[in-house]
């Protein structure tokens, strides 16, 4: 009887169809730390939603957390990757064993929104501009505007934490302009405010991407390359399908269909083509870190960046086409 049972089990194993065998494969769990929903990492979000990670055997868990927690979480292996590069780059500049390995967006997705009576950026001389705080990216943008447009020392930076808070400050006349993250600028228009300047047209600073530990890059190179392939496919899909990505944005950001299209059109040109920034974009990123995080302006890119695996992933994808 036992012999017959063994024979029956062997027959069952050989009769499993290829499709059933594939379904039986154990998926590899990866955890990606993210900030609050942001279009700056839309291609990675899209790659998850469209199954580009799943087809490579990854079960992705996107874990939302405060930006300040991402470096400890990554370095302590609580997460595998993060879409928030700034804290990792800052830690890496100070010797932490981690690198930024991919950028989804390489131009800012922020909008300078103003009260309706402001006709041009130059009209903000001596006025109040709202940022998310002091010593961060948005305050850096305000200082850049003051310097570029010679707005003068009487132009004041006002702090309000969220884009919604900043819009309310404008509506109530507590300030004349604010730096607003897409797609909240569309909400500003509904409030009677004006989209004055797309910051990405004057500041090509990479904004979101992927970072990982040096240990991960050394010991799990194959995994990292597959993760990067999925992310690059996410970039390609984001750039090629306006209708579907607009619908993804609308659902993700609680917008109507028309706003989803406008949001997509607003950020499409901010995305990288292959996850690798230009030298000028890398320099702009380091300059921003020097101003906001106190790292050396002479910091060598290889201290915080390693795009070699992104290049390898892009090359492997191209070879299969």
Structural commentary:
With 321 residues, the protein is of the alpha/beta class. It folds into two domains: 195 residues, Periplasmic binding protein-like II (D-Maltodextrin-Binding Protein, domain 2, 3-Layer(aba) Sandwich), CATH 3.40.190; 92 residues, D-Maltodextrin-Binding Protein, domain 2. It is built from 14 helices and ten strands. The strands form three sheets. A five-stranded mixed sheet has the order 7-6-8-5-9, with helices on both faces. Strand 1, helix 3 and strand 2 form a beta-alpha-beta unit. Helix 3 crosses helix 10. The radius of gyration is 23 Å and the shape is globular. The protein starts with a helix and ends with a helix. The N terminus is likely disordered.
In short:
This protein has 321 residues and is α/β, with parallel strands linked by helices. Helix content is 47%, strand content 17%.
Fold blueprint:
Layout: H1 2-14, H2 18-24, E1 28-34, H3 42-49, E2 58-64, H4 67-75, E3 81-82, H5 85-93, E4 98-105, E5 110-114, E6 128-131, H6 137-148, E7 156-159, H7 163-171, E8 177-181, H8 184-190, E9 194-198, E10 208-213, H9 214-219, H10 221-240, H11 242-253, H12 257-267, H13 279-293, H14 308-319
Parallel strand pairs: 1-2, 1-3, 6-7, 6-8
Antiparallel strand pairs: 4-10, 5-8, 5-9
